Amino acid sequence: MRSCRPPITPKNKNREFSTTCILKSKVIKQYIERRGMAAEQQDLPEQIACKAQPLGISFHPSLNLLSAGLVDGSVELHNYGSSTKHRIKALHPGASSRSTNFLSDDKLLSAGSDGSIHILDTNSMKAQLSFSKAHESPINRTFAIHQKNLIASGDDEGVVKLWDVRSGSSCVASFENAQSDFISGFACNDDGSTLLSSSGDCTLCAFDLRAATTQNTGDHSDSMGQSNSLFRRSDDQEDELLSVVVIKNGKKVVCGTQEGILCVWSWGTWGDQGHRMKGHPQSIDALLKVDEDTIITGSSDGLLRVVQLMPDKLLGVIGDHEGFPCEELRWSHDRRMIGSISHDEIVRLWDVSFLIDDEDEDEDVMETENEISNMVTQNVRKTNIDVGVDSDDEWEDVDDDNNDMNSDSSDEDSDEDSFDKNPKKNVRKFMSENERFFQDL
């Protein structure tokens, strides 16, 4: 098999990189197929029944505890390890609890369609802090920025606000006109310096949190809602952006759209998207990051798909809502389960332990990558010999010969004569294009 591979040349070096990604994708796909059947045999809850339709869910950061904000305005806490639950009634009377987030081990946030935000003590089940009129419009999404101890909230009119839960004061920043339609999702970079928001007005916004939190509280947008020094807004994408996630070590931002396309931005270039992946038949309402190259998508057709981006590839399907749309996806604290909600009263739990990098899987992937790396190295050396490029080993031999010349005067005179006659032969070549491309493999 190896002898049939063509030598690595500038024409097929990209093919070699593509082959690496394809083989890794095949390995991951085999994991999904193999472990997907085994997951059914594990003793894990498959679903949690709520009193009413859940609109938002969140997992506890260290316990088998899940919170669900319901359409009747209450919040339920479910211990999916012991099947016990606790219900907090009338948290948003006459409204719905649209978004919940565990801020810490003992703090739970709930935001409702009445524009209020409540922070609860999970031990006493009582409100520690409340903002009854946090937003004038119904709140659609909240997001915890743990690096800055901040909370971001976005409403149906596109208003984004930042809150400091430590001080217990009013919001520290408000962006009234950055976007003009409902906020569908939030994300941020690793150091928490930039907040991203996707919106139904077909734009993506990037907010500078360092500058926003150091200025006085108030509207940080001008009257026309144009970009200023505190935020940057993308061009109109002519397609609603329904979800957002950051991948590729902070270099790429992915948004799911109403048309079922994954749009990719390069970090810092917010004007327009630079890459698109098609393939979803309906809207992509939820995104969840697996690693820097892989995400899970929740679509209106009810399927949960594992997708690799750049290079683009569908790796498999891990769940099905049986025709109902998937509205939200969340990781459990140990990242072995995913919770999802739809238009019924069920929180579905999916075993995705096969996506965790355990030792056996790492050995398989590393073995494949090492085999490819060895083949690349052998082919690079073979190509260098064919085209007459001196290898590093040959240069080491030259250095050894030079050392021998210093110890033998007669040999030195002979080599000097040879150097004068053939100067090009003794001049060291720069690294070839192939060597530069594969030097990290």
Structural description of this entry:
This protein is an alpha+beta fold and 441 residues long. It folds into 2 domains: 102 residues, no CATH class; 323 residues, 7 Propeller (Methylamine Dehydrogenase, Chain H), CATH 2.130.10.10. The protein is 23% helix and 34% strand. The chain has 7 helices and 28 strands. The strands form 7 sheets. It has a 4-stranded antiparallel β-sheet, with no helix packed on it. Helix 1 runs antiparallel to helix 3 and helix 4 packs across helix 5. The longest helix has 29 residues. The protein is globular and about 70 Å long.
What is the strand and helix layout of this fold?
Elements: H1 13-39, E1 47-49, E2 54-59, E3 65-70, E4 75-79, E5 84-88, E6 97-102, E7 107-112, E8 117-121, E9 126-131, E10 139-145, E11 150-155, E12 160-164, E13 173-175, E14 183-188, E15 194-199, E16 204-208, H2 209-214, E17 231-233, E18 241-247, E19 252-257, E20 262-266, E21 275-277, E22 284-289, E23 294-299, E24 303-308, E25 313-320, E26 328-331, E27 337-341, E28 346-351, H3 359-387, H4 392-407, H5 409-421, H6 423-426, H7 433-438
Antiparallel strand pairs: 1-28, 2-3, 3-4, 4-5, 6-7, 7-8, 8-9, 10-11, 11-12, 12-13, 14-15, 15-16, 16-17, 18-19, 19-20, 20-21, 22-23, 23-24, 24-25, 26-27, 27-28
